[in-house]
Design goal:
- Two copies of one chain form a homodimer.
- By secondary structure, the first copy, chain A, is α+β, with helices and mostly antiparallel strands.
- The first copy, chain A, is 40% helix and 11% strand.
- In chain A, the strands form four sheets. In chain A, strands 2-1-6-3-4-5 form a six-stranded mixed β-sheet. A six-stranded mixed β-sheet of chain A has the order 8-7-12-9-10-11. A two-stranded antiparallel sheet of chain A has the order 13-14.
- Chain A is globular.
- At the A-B interface, α1, α21, α24, α26 and α27 of A face α1, α21, α24, α26 and α27 of B.
Chain lengths: 635, 635
């Protein structure tokens, strides 16, 4: 066995105030690694099935990884995980920024938080120490002032603060966790879990750098990564335009989600695209810890009703979609304002936009009226209504805000009158801004992600579908042939399964999609070398893919024991129906062919095709036989 | 896509004499690679199910690999494959030596041989050319004279000759293919298939060296491999004692197969061990093409009834077992003579020994008498009887020879009177010299090998079972914890499945067990680099393991369509029963626990636990969906 990786886990019981440090040992770290892998390991071991996600029995985990914070572009992310109050299923969201590395510098791989604080509090983690401090003075503050106050209190302006914001305090079911005011663990309502625990923030600061197993090797790999980023076309696009670069190509392809998935082309696309942002409101290109890509945007709208401050960053592609094309809003300043508000309140911009779209479609169909919307004209395209709705949702105000704060699934059920068909959700989580009708692998990704519709828990398939440099990048997996984006069938399933191993593994190793996914700088075969240089483990792409598969399987088991099954692995009816406009007008997804792909997927994963229950043999193979007790009654 | 690997396939129809050359293209080569992978691909595509293995419809494939013959120790092997006349199942056997590389030098990755020659013939393959030549003058000759004659006829003393020998001509069901008189594709009766086609030999010669994609990288890896072999303890043991080094440790551990698996300790072990061979009859250490290990033995018994010539090599561990301890024969000279005779006739030494053991046990139990044994006293321990029996078997003489030439399964059925319980076979193939009662992974290996009981189609588990350097060697697969040799259950299945990926892959890439298996010089993570340097494919351990899994699955499908199923994946009754002596006296294999491991294995492989039929999803995942038509009626 190689030299042990010596990570530490911080355990905090907010009910009792008890804090302790645990060293799980090398086998656990190497098998579960960090992020989603380590979090699901502890959740499966220690969380009772069936608990209220917003009750004290839920367990909230902040998890960096054995590699988070190494000096190499893109290996920076950390996970927040718990049972999701939005879906009732496995909850997990990743974020970049600076918090993940700082938690490592502060001496911990992960923080496992149990119980419920009797009063508002925050956790201060610094150089191997941790303390629970009162947050009574910051409770109710927006994220900016709260961060400032915490930094003052702990006496360190470089403390990194991951917090839930006022929306989390109000337990908006899709409240997120924000660090540095602009990097969000966005999905599955992890901010609401913080709020339910009266935990406003985790602040971290460490003065120790990470010890690399092989510093020379790491330096060499970091240099290679930087050179590749500097020379590789997609990296330059990401630097130049950020994720908003996607607006125009997706619009042209007819898969820019528009008007609550009615259509795939938005006439105002040019006004909200990355190029337009660069010409108008872009204030700065920014990046995460140690990253040369610098895909993050800081925008400023200096004056007017949508005046925004650059300290809250700028809208990503997802937000330009969810608060823009999805709502038929072609006003970049309004979207930027909406984005800023979400970061001030701690709201997931995707779920917010999809929730507002539900209300707009209900309104246009007479299912909601001005009596329900606080007197606002809630039509698609009304930017002011969108802005107002964000305030209301974050504060659970005016009936409508409280309703939409529950997420579209619960909201539509409460509205009734057929509103369910306007609710674009899977397992209760709102769909991201990608239309499976143009890329069926994305449909698999949405239907099969354990966190509900999610675009970072499983792969997009478009960049890998066509001949070209991306196909060569995945050749080390044995994926050698192009598979057209709209193809259904076994080849698509094969590609999806292997890419899902990778995407899942990203979230356990802390790798960013934007250095390892579409932008993909370092070749796949270098990844085990990076892990080696960091930890001393002579791993392989095989072991790393198995880590990804293991993590997907653990999340599946989590969901099975909460009562989820094949019935929940589906798409909203609208996605099966034809697109009303754009380049793919008339195209839907064939329900039977899609269902057949699900069957192939389950079987390819070693899961019972009836309900997606992993076989005992598959659990054994993945070193997860200890989970058999949770699913044996389900076969 | 990287630069294409430009291999060629030679197709020969012996019925018509038609010869053609095919270039299957890079995708086929990279997906199926060579050896067992490429052979099973073509057999599944082109061989009709249900054909007589000894009829003209059987297809015989000689397959090197995309890496065979590269200048690096141990990447030297080639495969001969066909439907097996011994088992009726998938037949495959690998050999080292010099033939595999020479076939590559001659311009071909593989030779696919169909039909039946009207007269004895041999195939002469040289520098991109091929011709069918008459073998009437060599038919009936022992291998030595035949090789000499062929070299004379083709006018090249460096022609490498792989031939079936007189035993193959007689279609002894376990006749092997021998190259250089001493390297055997031993198992599953591939020599009998040659005989049935009237094909005595394939002779190859090429004057072109292989073109490496990255010669500098290959040089560096070759140097590293040589340094590791020079410094790594097990390599030194292999050099010093060869495979016979195993006799004493296995005897001490109580798992040296003795007296037809009655016991695991042989009182004459010291007289037949590697150390004794070195002290007495060892003439030279030899090796295969480009290999620094040099584990092969050449022995010489200068005079007496057992006088042997070193040009036929010397007995491996398997032969010391099968003609030695297994028959209670403690006379090294007699074993050496038996080994030489097997190489002269072209007989598999393992099957020969186990066949003789059947006769001896029948004789001692009165099931056979002197009337059946040609008057010989056929007791265990009678070395002369063993020698005589080899002659008879090879020539199918004296009733007994003809009977035993059918293999122990058919022979025991013909003998009747309960002889079946003395027949140590699985799927009709005789067990190698490893006792699963001391290493349950070996039991899985025997029961699950598609070729019947076989020690090189799936892993031994002993060296990987204990803490120590071997465990670290497999850590890149994520196998981090020791699993005791006699443990049953999920951990054992997990280890077995991953190691089977490797072992299966060895046979498709042409890697020798003795540089990659127990001796294991180059670290696992260097293997993809070797493939890259040879072919230009940026592969990974993931892709290579999937190649192994794919090949196992193809062979499974082959067997399913021939009517094999779970009922055939078992061990002889005796192996479940207690060992009668030695360190593990009293130990057997728990039938229920073993059966439970089989279920876990099927499930871990994505196979139906009822009969081991791969699911459609698993076929899709492995890029084998085209095989669904063969098994869909079996689910």
């Amino acid at each position: 066995m190689p030299k042990a990786y010596n990570g530490k886990i911080l355990r905090v019981d907010l009910t009792t105030g008890h804090i302790q440090v645990e060293e799980p040992g090398e086998i656990v770290y190497r098998t579960y690694f960090g992020g989603g892998g380590l979090a699901s390991y502890y959740l499966l071991k220690e969380l009772k099935p069936g608990v209220d996600p917003l009750g004290p029995e839920n367990i909230l985990i902040f998890a960096s990884t054995a590699c988070t914070g190494i000096p190499i572009s893109g290996w920076v992310r950390f996970t927040v995980a718990a049972k999701s109050p939005l879906t009732g299923a496995y909850g997990e969201a990743e974020a970049g920024g600076f918090f993940g590395p700082e938690l490592k510098f502060a001496g911990f791989d992960a923080v496992i938080i149990k119980g419920q604080s009797p009063k508002p509090c925050y956790l201060w983690v610094h150089d191997g120490q941790a303390e629970i401090r009162s947050a009574e003075a910051i409770w109710g503050l927006e994220t900016g002032p709260a961060q400032e106050r915490i930094r003052e209190e702990v006496g360190d302006p470089r403390a990194r603060v991951a917090q839930c914001g006022p929306a989390g305090e109000k337990m908006v079911r899709y409240a997120c966790v924000v660090n540095e005011l602009k990097h969000a663990n966005g999905r599955t309502g992890m901010g609401a879990v913080m709020g339910s625990k009266n935990l406003r923030a985790v602040a971290a600061r460490g003065t120790q750098r990470l010890e690399m197993h092989d510093p020379e090797k790491m330096k060499e790999l970091g240099k290679l990564q930087s050179e590749l980023i500097a020379s590789w076309g997609p990296s330059k696009v990401m630097r130049n335009l950020g994720t908003p670069n996607l607006i125009m190509p997706l619009n042209t392809a007819g898969i820019l989600p528009t008007k609550n998935f009615h259509t795939g082309a938005f006439e105002g696309a040019e006004n909200i695209c990355g190029e337009k942002m660069r010409e108008t409101i872009l204030k700065a290109e920014e990046g995460c810890y140690a990253c040369a890509v610098r895909c993050k945007r800081a925008v400023e709208v200096p004056t007017g009703p949508y005046a925004t401050s650059p300290e809250y960053g700028g809208p990503e592609y997802e937000t330009l979609g969810s608060l823009g094309s999805f709502l038929c809003i072609g006003d970049l300043a309004a979207i930027a304002k909406g984005n800023e508000l979400c970061n001030r309140y701690g709201l997931d911009t995707i779920s917010v936009g999809v929730a507002i779209a539900l209300a707009m479609e209900c309104y246009e169909n007479g299912v909601l009226t001005k009596a329900d919307t606080g007197g606002l004209d809630f039509r698609f395209g009304n930017a002011d209504a969108m802005i107002q709705a964000i305030h209301w949702i974050a504060r659970r105000e005016k009936g409508l805000g409280d309703l939409l704060a529950e997420g579209v699934k619960r909201a539509a059920q409460k509205i009734g009158k057929g509103a369910e068909k306007f609710a674009m959700e899977i397992k209760g989580q709102e769909l991201p801004m990608h239309d499976p009708r143009g890329k069926t692998g994305q449909g698999l990704s949405f239907a099969l992600s354990p966190t509900g519709a999610d675009h970072v828990e499983a792969p997009h398939d478009t960049p890998f579908a066509q001949p070209g440099p991306m196909l060569g990048k995945i050749a080390p997996l044995g994926l050698l042939e192009p598979v057209p984006a709209r193809e259904n069938g076994p080849r698509k399933v094969r590609n999806f399964v292997y890419l899902q191993y990778l995407w899942s593994m990203f979230n356990s190793v802390g790798i960013c999609n934007f250095t390892a996914g579409p932008v993909w700088s370092l070749p796949l075969n270098k990844w085990p070398e990076v892990v080696y240089a960091a930890t001393g483990w002579e791993t392989s792409l095989f072991e790393l893919c198995k880590l990804g598969e293991r993590t997907v399987t653990m999340a599946r088991v989590f969901n099975l024991r909460e009562g989820f099954g094949r019935k929940d692995d589906t798409l909203p009816d609208r996605i099966y129906e034809a697109l009303e406009g754009g380049a793919l007008a008339g195209k839907g997804i064939d329900r039977k062919e899609f269902d057949e792909m699900l069957t192939l997927y389950y079987e390819a994963m070693g899961w019972d095709p009836k309900d997606g229950v992993p076989t005992r043999g598959k659990l054994a193979e993945l070193n997860l036989y200890w989970l058999d007790e949770y699913v044996k009654g389900k076969r």
